[in-house]
Amino acid sequence: MNKTVLVSGGAGFIGSHVTVELIEAGYEVVVADNFSNCDRTCYEGVKKITGREDLPLEVMDFCDPEAVKALFGKYHIDAVIHFAAFKAVGESVEQPLKYYRNNLDSFLNVLEAAKEHGSFVLFSSSATVYGEPDSVPVTEATPRKPATSPYGNTKTICEDILRDSVKASGGRLKGILLRYFNPIGAHPSALIGELPRGVPNNLVPFITQTAIGKRECLSIFGNDYPTPDGTCLRDYIDIVDLAKAHVYAVNRMVDGRMKQACEVFNVGTGRPVSVLELVNAFEKVNGVKLNYKFAPRRAGDVTAIWADPSLAESEMGWKATRSVEQTLQAAWAWEKHLAGK
Ligand code: WQD
Predict the structure, then answer these.
(1) Is residue 262 exposed (0-12), middle (13-18) or buried (19+ Cβ within 10 Å)?
(2) 303 CA distance to ligand 1 centroid (A)?
(3) Mind listing the pLDDT tens digit for each residue in 33-66?
């Protein structure tokens, strides 16, 4: 029988791409979402891409412990991938309690149910836990730094919660932490992608919305950083590559190949790209001219961070395969699809 994976937040940007890859790898998937920060576009897109009209959808809030218990009672969940969380860095600074309440409560409920039912747990962590690193690239052993936002802090705290609970569970709970760098792009079908509400905070949605004419001008935040062209360096990871990393991690868990009860892997490319390089690559590969200007630095931005992704390759056999150009083409195709072009 196929193994079943529960994807909390499965109708969102990362969750929908992960659902596609899991189904294509032969897993049964249960999508659960409360649609607090997305509509049904990606859920419908996943059904189209996979041909799975019967894809189970549970509309529910992971902060409700009874609903989570009922969900784990309804399905036999071999592994749960937890995405359901708020993710706006700026909003988390203004409303920290909203972020701590939502992002921690939901994860605690998932962990309690997973422990009860012996389900593996995969947590969506972030490179944000490294803060401004003392040296780059960062490995999984690079010390974490205090988070610069409540959102970032929820990632650090959830990592600790998983580690502590695994340790105390006497083998009942096992989990993997994946630390994502900067996920960008969209599925090559252009049927699913990122759907930011309001003005995008992240670079690539802002670029595509400027190119399509929804935004007047892209501000590049800071061109006086100590980097080759003065703009920040990041590790932009294609969303489909990133989604596939989850399949490798779930395989490792359910096939009994974990070497420790709680493992951590960077999910990045190992390739630093500056903001200006990304903008230039977008213009070139898509043949569009972007209206942009240099603006002051954005508070809280780190100068440079990129992954050493070699552990994910040596341990799980996963590595990123798509070029920045392919990814930016997919991001543009998705924006055009949204605009009906
Ligand atoms: C990338 C670069 C900006 C917008 C954030 C979160 C992190 C993670 C991913 C999310 C930076 C520059 C951006 C713009 C710009 N988690 N930029 N103009 O900040 O690396 O990471 O998203 O769930 O936790 O902090 O990503 O895409 O916002 O920025 O110049 O309009 O682009 O200054 O150098 P970031 P980003």
Answers:
(1) buried
(2) 11
(3) 999 999 999 999 999 999 999 999 999 999 999 9
